[in-house]
Amino acid sequence: MINSTNFVVDANGRVSFSGLNSGIDFASVINGIIGAKQIPVVTLENRITAAEEQIVAFEELRTVLAALQTSVSTLRGAVTVGGTNDVFKSKSVFSSTSRTDGLTPSAAGNLVGFTVDNSAATGVHEIEIRRVATAHKIASQEFASTTAALNISGTFDITNGSDVTTITVSGTDTLLDIRDRINNANTGTTATGVTASVVSVSTSQNILVLTNDATGADMVVTDAGTVLSSLGLSSDNGATFTNVLQTSQTARLTADGLVDSAHHESLIVGSSSAQLGSYLDSSVFPG
C-alpha cells in the first residue's frame, strides 16, 4: 500500500511521492544513483580546469624565463665593440643646474640633453648656457571678429627648404579659416614648418600669430599680391614683417670653457672613442 503522506503536489499540479509504506525514500535513492553516475563527469571537468590552470602557469613561467635569458645574456661577458652589451660597463648621465645671479635655475632637462654609451669616459663636465634658442614669431594686425568674413582674397607662399606651399585665401574666409588653412598645410612630408594660432586679447581684438616650428631660423612667408599687407603681416610682400613678436636665435653655450668661435657652440670629446657632446644647435635647444 502507498502511504498518502508521501504524496507531494507541486505548483503545476503534478503529483509525486517520496516513498512507499515500506519506509524507503525512493527520491533520495534516485538522486544518489544520479549523483553516482555524474562522478566521472565531475572528475573530468575538474581535470580540465586543472589543466587550463597549468597551461596559464606554464605561459607565465615561459615569459619569466625569457626575461631571465635576456638579462643573463648581458652578464655572461659577450664580446661587443666598446662593450655596448656589457652591463658592468653601463654609463648614465646625471645633471644639475645653478645660476650665478641667485635666481631659481631652469631644470637641466629643459636646457640641454645628453646620451652616453658604455664606451664613454667617466668624468664631470660643466656646460654654461649663454643663450637659449628661440623660434621666429610674427603677428598680424588686430581684427574685430574671428568668425566674420575678412574680404581678403589671393595667395601667399610659405617656403620650407626646397618646398614651397601656396596658401589660397578667399573673400569669405574668416580669421579662423586662414589659421586652419595654414595649419592644414603644415602636415605630411612637405609640411610648411609654420604653425598658426589666433590670440584674442578681447572679443574685438583678435590677432593671427605665425610661429616657425624650427628655432634659430626665420620663416619665409611671401606673396606677389596684397594678402600679407591686408592681414597686417608685411607691407613689402614678406621682405620684412610688420610685427615681430620674437626673433629667431640659436643656442649659445660654453662647455668646460671651450667655445666654438664660428657658432659659439661647443664640441666636447672626452676621449678618442667617447664623444660626450655634439654641436648643439637650434634642434637641441627647443627654446
Helicity level: 10-25%
- How widely separated are the two ends? 104 Å
Number of strands: 11
Arithmetic mean pLDDT? 79
Alpha-beta classification = alpha+beta
Radius of gyration: 39 Å
Strand content: 15-25%
Q: Segments where pLDDT lies below 50 for 5+ residues?
A: 265-287
| Tally of individual helices | 3
The strands making up the biggest β-sheet line up spatially as 7-8-4-10
Structure description:
The chain is of the alpha+beta class. Helices cover 22% and strands 23% of the residues. A four-stranded antiparallel β-sheet has the order 7-8-4-10. A three-stranded antiparallel β-sheet has the order 6-5-9, covered by helices on one side. The chain has a two-stranded antiparallel ribbon with strand order 1-2. It is flat. Residues 265-287 have low confidence and may be disordered.
Relevant terms:
four-stranded antiparallel beta sheet, alpha+beta, 3 helices, three-stranded antiparallel beta sheet
Outline the secondary-structure elements:
Elements: E1 7-9, E2 15-17, H1 26-73, E3 127-131, E4 135-143, E5 154-160, E6 163-169, H2 175-185, E7 194-202, E8 205-215, E9 220-222, H3 227-231, E10 243-246, E11 252-255
Antiparallel strand pairs: 1-2, 3-11, 4-8, 4-10, 5-6, 5-9, 7-8
